[in-house]
Design brief:
This protein is of the alpha+beta class. It has two helices and six strands. It has helices spanning about 10-20, 55-60, and strands spanning about 25-30, 35-40, 45-50, 65-70, 75-90, 90-99. The longest helix has 13 residues, at about 10-20.
Length: about 100
């Protein structure tokens, strides 16, 4: 387990780079796992494209134990996230996450 990153600026910088490159991420609950990709960071909301049905996004991710995992450089980051709901970005349906 690595050292936690707690500086807001550093976290936003890492997520901004991931969005710019449309990096892969995994949204995971104790029961489900979905491959996704970063799309946009808007304020304190992160938008991701996910490979899941609308029902999975609506019901499968609404619990309090959703975790986001993604690679960055030589490391791998993990963070609990709160699903805010669905959104759209550039005409595509996204899942909105609270940072």
């Amino acid at each position: 387990m690595g050292t936690p990153i707690k500086k807001t600026e550093e976290i936003r910088e890492i997520l901004g780079r991931a969005c710019a490159r449309r990096e892969l991420l995994v949204l995971e609950t104790p029961y489900l796992r979905f491959e996704s990709s970063f799309v946009a960071l808007e304020g304190d909301t992160l938008q991701v494209l996910a490979t899941m049905s609308l029902d999975d996004a609506t019901y499968g991710l609404r619990g309090p134990d959703v975790v986001m995992r993604f690679p960055e450089g030589l490391g791998f980051y993990e963070a609990p996230v709160q699903v805010l709901g669905l959104g759209t970005f550039e005409g595509r349906r996204t899942v909105r996450l609270a940072l």
